[in-house]
């Protein structure tokens, strides 16, 4: 669904065609004038948990972060396109949340706050969709969360 606004001052919900519909009472994005604001994006189909395209056929092969990042980024790209923008050149700010099992509570108590997390798989996927100059970006790691990547972008 491409967004059309009769009054550019009125915010419009963006629901891209073919993208999974969230179960929460919110839209994947809202367009307000020339700005698009996204809700948190997850690698889910909102039916079976992790979307089938974000699951490795063999859990011992394939990179979970890469698969989930690709699923999330494809959903972003569809949402951005439905809002009339281009994910490759219109992103101006990105926030990413990543999951790590480190530091453990014991490591944290000792002052070690390093997550030991590599996000190279995510950045490789992101760079297939978002081009130079890359937008400002902030990554955060959380411990014991249920999703592997929950990036969010404002256009």
What does this structure look like?
The chain has 155 residues and is of the alpha+beta class. The chain has a single domain (12-154), classed as 2-Layer Sandwich (60s Ribosomal Protein L30, Chain: A), CATH 3.30.1330. Helices cover 25% and strands 19% of the residues. The chain is built from 4 helices and 6 strands, in the order E-E-E-H-H-E-H-H-E-E. The strands form 2 sheets. Strands 1-2-3 form a 3-stranded antiparallel sheet. Helix 1 packs parallel to helix 4 (120-129). The longest helix has 19 residues, at 64-82. It is globular, with a radius of gyration of 17 Å. The relative contact order is 0.21.
CATH class: Alpha Beta
Write down the overall geometry.
globular
Strand order of the largest sheet: 1-2-3
Query: Which H/E pattern describes the elements?
Result: EEEHHEHHEE
Give the low-confidence spans.
145-155
Quaternary structure annotation: single chain
